[in-house]
Amino acid sequence: MLALPDVRCYLNGSYQPLAEAKISVMDRGFIFGDGVYEVLPVYERRLFRFESHMERLERNLAKLRIASPLLRAQWLEMARELVRGVAADEQLVYLQVTRGVAPRNHAMPEGAVPTVFAYSMPSKPMSAEERHRGVACISARDFRWQRGDIKSISLLGNVLARQISADEGAAETILLRDGFLTEGASSNVWIVKEGALLGPPRSEDLLEGIRVELLRELCEECGIGYNLRPISEAELFAADEIILSSAGKEVLAVTRLDHQPVGHGALHGKPGPVYARLYEAYQRAKPLQSI
Does residue 151 have an active-site annotation? Predict the structure, then answer.
């Protein structure tokens, strides 16, 4: 049995050791994957873009017709309490809400009480060497369900997609649907073309990552062009740069795609200048946007 982190978790109003936390086998999160989650980065023991993460959690709960079980201030106090219980200054707080316990029936039950679970863990930042050389990715068909905009705990499609790249020793699987870029198995994906940062438009095919708005702000700060529009498979493979973004990766340069170098000329297979500027801007934003 794999050892669990020696930390406390929050479960339905109480704090307890993570290894001792238990839910009913009839919880709809366990039976159906009927729930949503959030992951909040913590820098210097402070929560990064807390309000943006809460807004997305509330939007996703509404899509599942689950009333938010806690007020915004209660989420904040609970997250801070979990952060206090972990020694590391850099953490990731995981929050999960399911529809709750009910007899097994596909239809949404009336009166179910949501299950709320959360814990915090030390984050594992990319090493300086990984950032210097960039990472490799593998492309694949996006075979997941068609509501990628919901941050659902039903992540089997993402698990299968991520394993495609894990089997190749790569950092992420970049997904394409009907010839166009959607996202990574656990990241948003961007390309750089003629000095501008381009990402897929908002749609039900992909999750609206918190870093989508953050990168828009950072591009404006740095004078980098920014646009969300359909990105074809051909554009992906011809990109000047490819960048991943997520709570754990922050921003990360992709320097090999399907075993071939990304980029052109002197930047062939190396992190590019747009990535470098956005990474530095991201580091400046951490203390300014954390509470």
Answer: yes
Of residues 124, 151, 270, 286, which has the active-site annotation?
Answer: 151
- Model pTM score: 0.94
C-beta atoms surrounding 84 within 10 Å: 10
| In contact, 98 and 27? CB cutoff 8 Å | yes
pLDDT tens-digit map of 154-206: 999 999 999 999 999 999 999 999 999 999 999 999 999 999 999 999 999 99
DSSP 279: H
Burial class (CB in 10 A: 0-12, 13-18, 19+), 10: buried
Which has the closest alpha carbon to 226: 175, 263, 281, 168? Answer: 281
Q: Retrieve residue 259's tokens.
A: 């075993």
Q: Which of 93, 121, 92 is nearest to 248 (CA)?
A: 92
Q: What number of other Cβ atoms are within 10 A of residue 74's Cβ?
A: 13
